[in-house]
Amino acid sequence: MRFFLLVLMDIGDVVRLRQPFCPERERSESYQFGVVVGFAYQEEEETPTGVVVYLYNPESGSRYTDAWGDQGLFTFQFDELDLP
User: Fold this and answer.
1) Which range of residues forms the domain containing residue 60?
2) pLDDT in single tens digits along all 84 residues of the chain
3) Residue 52: which of 77, 33, 30 has the closest Cα?
4) How much is the pTM?
């Protein structure tokens, strides 16, 4: 499945998180979508082992920002994501 999703994913694609993700304990806001910004690799691996995303809210069109206004990058495994 990892290879299948890799073939279909590209930078800029919107992906669905299989489980809602809450980036901060202090805030109740959770996210179920992300925008692909890159791929994570482990040493000596030729294919990516994870997907790097900005958390995204399609209803408001906004991306997650922390208390300082920075957009956080989060890495998920392929089996934690679906293509919408």
Assistant:
1) 2-82
2) 454 555 678 999 999 999 999 998 887 789 999 999 999 988 877 778 899 999 999 999 999 998 889 999 999 998 999 988
3) 77
4) 0.83
